[in-house]
Design a protein that fits this description.
homodimer; about 300 residues; alpha/beta; Metallo-beta-lactamase, Chain A; 7-stranded mixed sheet; 16 strands; about 30% strand
């Protein structure tokens, strides 16, 4: 199960009633934060989420509305007596950004590891979660992220019983290991059923609606993506500053056949994104105009 | 008249219901901001104050709860189409801090001028406001600031009428200029009455209760100062981290004979600073346990 909490839904400028867009992804005792603008640590506190537990921070790009909360967050994690390292991922230029962060934060008593994403697409594992960074089209290098939690096939007890293998070895087969016993080799496929659908979450903000988003979002359980503007007259602003209209975003969700779509990263000029709800549901029915603190548990389907 | 707005009252960590301590001082079309922690731009917005108008930023010291909001504030000022320069004052090390700010903020389209305060006490004028930075005792170099607005003596029409000087010259005498007319020299003291009390505002946070605060706060109309803790058991924390107890702060206000005292910079551990109100009023009667947005117009007294 993945616990998803969209801490804020604003773009560009934090507002008194709208935190900047940031996502907290929790599963299996692990916590990943995506982006950290000014105020994200307050949004975490408001949602009663502990900053101490964040192991990994994924940065989409280096505009300040996605990074300026890092000094404060890291210091608050320090005050909560975190001692374990934190790993930060982001586009090229991360080392310089962290220099800026440490000038302002000064003393952070735990280790910060950092990894720059150098290719248009890169995957890495955090625990059993496969994360893929994929390039978006913004005014500076920017990445979307997909989170995939695979599901083990069902263990077929009837098939296992037919093997001459003591039960004490079953667990290893179930974990995907090969077992040798009395000169015979046993492989997981002998006891495991058909592949089962895992969970996929995809996050894409600060981008024009490039096909790359759709291909990554295919069949996702949840797509969280940018809806900077709803007013069709804003299309030139969207193109100029490399942002995505709500309608463009809904079309991607429809083509990618996602299960559910959440809009986020609203322009400060858009006071009421809900006014476009009916139109957007006409493009993609299962869309939600997310609010700060929007959350959901994504579970394996039975 | 000085328009004083305490944007936040928190210390160390911004909370969902308490912004970090920051002060906005406005007079005569000029705006000075003192400190800018994470969220200060949101607090400004909540108080319907325009960040665009801030000409000067005074920094007390370089702990992140007093500086980490600078990248966001400067970018929001840029979005509001400010083009005039902004001047930032602070202790030694300001240049490095601003390097960090610009790494995170990246592009700020107006000029930032900066002036490091190198002495234990330094005064400078901003328009007709005399500002004095004075050293406090914190774990890093830290300054308090006093703001003094002088008041011109009253123009004595009866005395002016007795001079052989046409009325068209009166205005220059009133402004403090010397006038020569038909071979005679006229000086301002010939038409001005007794000196009149101006307005004094004093701000001191992040410090032990050193005598220097008292000497600067003497007869101030308003002292805004740190009350990090109210619980007497916290005195060791206060000493160790160089902070001031509410009781210590109230004693300074009493000895300095200030007109009014506002407490600020409450520890995140102190959820209810108002529980100490009665005790504090016993030490200094005219004290206010300030809330975010506490404001007052300081006017010349009649």
């Amino acid at each position: 199960m993945i616990d998803v909490c969209l801490l804020g839904t604003g773009g560009t400028v934090p507002l008194p009633d709208r935190w900047l867009t940031s996502l907290l992804v929790k599963w299996n005792g692990k916590s990943i934060l995506v982006d950290c603008g000014e105020g994200t640590q307050i949004a975490l506190s408001q949602q009663r989420k502990s900053p101490k537990e964040i192991d990994t921070i994924l940065l989409t790009h280096y505009h300040a509305d996605h990074t300026a909360g890092l000094p404060g967050l890291l210091l608050t994690m320090a005050k909560s007596e975190r001692t374990e390292p934190v790993t930060i991922y982001g586009p090229k230029g991360l080392e310089e950004i962290l220099q800026g962060v440490f000038i302002i934060a000064r003393y952070v008593p735990f280790e910060i590891r950092y990894k720059e994403i150098r290719n248009r697409e890169e995957s890495f594992m955090i625990d059993d979660m496969k994360i893929t960074a994929f390039a978006l089209q913004h005014s500076v290098p920017c990445f979307g992220y997909s989170f995939e939690l695979a599901r083990q096939p069902k263990f077929d007890v009837q098939r296992a019983l037919k093997l001459d293998l003591p039960k004490m070895y079953w667990g290893r087969l179930q974990k995907g290991e090969t077992v040798e016993y009395e000169g015979k080799v046993y492989t997981p496929d002998m006891v495991l059923g058909d592949p089962r659908k895992g969970i996929k979450l995809v996050y894409a903000t600060d981008t024009r609606p490039v096909p790359y988003i759709e291909s990554h979002a295919v069949n996702a359980d949840l797509l969280i993506a940018e809806g900077m503007y709803g007013d069709p007259e804003k299309i030139e602003n969207a193109k100029e500053n490399r942002h995505m209209m709500m309608q463009e975003c809904a079309s991607i969700a429809a083509k990618a056949n996602v299960h559910e779509l959440w809009f986020t990263h609203y322009s400060p000029s858009m006071h009421d994104p809900w006014q476009y709800e009916e139109e957007l549901k006409g493009i993609f029915h299962n869309c939600i105009i997310a609010k700060d603190g929007q959350n959901k548990d994504l579970a394996f389907q039975e």
